Amino acid sequence: MNLASPEDAGDAPVAEQVREGDRALDGNTVSARRDDWNAIVDSIMPGPAQQVRIERRVILRISPARPAGPSRQNLTAEVPQQERPRTRLVERKAGNCIESARIGGVSDRGDRLLILMRDRSMMTARLEKGCSPRDFYRGFYVERSDDGKICVNRDRIMSRSGAKCQIDRFSQLVAEELD
Q1: pLDDT at 152
Q2: Is the dihedral of CA 85, 86, 88, 93 positive or negative?
Q3: Which intervals of the chain are annotated as region Disordered (predicted)?
Q4: Cβ(115)–Cβ(124) under 8 Å?
Q5: DSSP conformation letters of 17-79
Q6: Given Cys at both, which of 42, 57, 59, 173 links 122, Cβ 3.0 to 4.6 Å?
């Protein structure tokens, strides 16, 4: 085995074994290869930052109205029946928007959605042409707007099955006495 002496090496960097008494490291050999290290460090660094946009999106779920169960139907079974005036429900024109926080439930009734409000009033919603209220019998989703309202020809309601429709008109159901 032929070992060359350090004088034979010329200008090439020489690696020396650290002895027990030596505590300092010579950084010259590492810094002399700085370009090699930069390539490695640059490969793991993240690239330049691009514009980041954070959006907050709130989707409201309007659940179907709960049917009156047997316990609810029996609450008035023992109450004596009085002569009640005969009434019918009539649709009256309502505004173009309703507050989504006031909605308590939804059901389909023929060609309209029946919207039950938390204050026990009822509204109907006529959907745009080509949309069936039957698609929304299990409730619907709507993206919350800045004003917190669902408006005619502005907001789209989405059924759980994927149908998307706009509301053409709101009406309020009002009890009217029959003569």
Answers
A1: 94
A2: negative
A3: 1-30, 65-86
A4: yes
A5: PPPTT-----THHHHTTHHHHHHHHHHHS-------------EEEEPBPPP--HHHHGGGSSS
A6: 173
Residues in the chain: 179
Give tens-digit pLDDT for 20-72: 655 555 555 555 566 666 777 777 777 677 777 777 777 778 777 766 555 55
Look up residue 38 and give its two tokens. Answer: 């930069």
Separation between Cα atoms, residue 160 and residue 42, nearest integer Å: 48
Using CA atoms, how far residue 119 sits from 17, 88, 116, in Å, is 86, 19, 8
Q: Give the closest residue to 106 by CA, choosing from 66, 157, 60, 70.
A: 66
Residues of the chain with pLDDT under 50: 1-2
- Between CA 46 and CA 95 the distance in angstroms is 53
Give the pLDDT score at 62: 79
Q: How far is CA 108 from CA 65, 84, 111, 173, 178, in A?
A: 10, 27, 8, 14, 25
Tokens of 162: 């994927």
Q: Residue 69: which residues within 8 A CB-CB, separation 6 or more?
A: none
Tokens encoding 126: 């006529």
Q: Could you tell me the two tokens for 64?
A: 């179907």
